[in-house]
Amino acid sequence: MVTRSNRDHFPNLVLSLPVLALVLTLAFLLPVTGTAAQVQVRRKLNGNVTFHCPHHKQQTLWFFYLQKGNEFVNGYHASNAIMNAMNHTTVNHSQRAVTIQRLSISDSGQYTCHIQYKDNPTVHTTAVIHLSVTATYSKPTLSVSCITTSCQVTCTSGGGYPNSKVTWNVPVNVTAGSQWKLIMSSKEEDSDTMLFNISSSADFNCSHTMTQSLSCTVGGVTSEIIEICKQPVSVYALPAYVIGAICAVGLICLLLVLLLFWKCRKARKKGAAVAVTPQEIIVLNGQEVEVAS
Q: What is the pTM of this model?
């Protein structure tokens, strides 16, 4: 059986099934009377795709089959069963259709559909279909590392196909003022899945700029918006009513402190006055005696 893992064992269309070999050989030897324009088809990774071969319903079908390059995919013969079909494929002969399930990136490529009718066995019809299997990139993540007056921001995304690049979404004033620069870009392709992981880092100069908002995009997917170059809040940037409230609270606090200080000072003076009250003098039997109060 032809599988995705052993397709290389079938370099041409002469397969082990005698009838199928004869059919495929005739398809190359017979003149082509009809070739439809190439059709472009796009599908997502792990999805399904159905190839519909153009056909004439009024004519009696003898056989049809789908191939990718020189590799047989699947097909139908009116008199014989097809045994060498590719794994994960099904055929609907009434619709002249072949379905490939659980698509992988390696399924991308050019396919050709061949049709032969019993009514006119000397000619056959072909159709070319180009399949592009894509994978959506993960939502990019942004990491920030700031030192003194500069911030390094890294955008990372993965699991996508085809290859893409990082697009930085920064304010116009930052771009025009040359306040940032790209310092690194990298990509890695998984040898098994053929999916890409992409990363890019940029350095932003915060010495002459206020807080800036930015994001990044990879393969049409955009990250969350983050803020960098955050500056301390200035009192002059606060609304007037906030400044007024701050001043009022400060004035009240000052008055309370002064009132408390005045009360403490008054209490001290009163205590000192009691301590220096003149001594009382009582005359007893003609003699003066001092009595402490």
A: 0.64
